[in-house]
Amino acid sequence: MNIDKDQILQLLKSQGNHTRADQASNELPDQVDTDNGQHQDLLSKFGLNTNELPGMLGGLGKLL
Known about the structure:
single chain; 64 residues; mainly alpha; two-stranded antiparallel ribbon; 4 helices; 2 strands; 9% strand; globular
């Protein structure tokens, strides 16, 4: 599944993780592929689980 980096940054910020969002902004590619092992490792580094991410992003629309 491909996810736009901006969606991930918004999710991190909505969780109050502004420092992680800034770091992710510099390290994540523009399109994050949750099936890509390297991208999974990066997401994990920022406290995001690829299995839970689609549900978390679905709830993000309710926050914005």
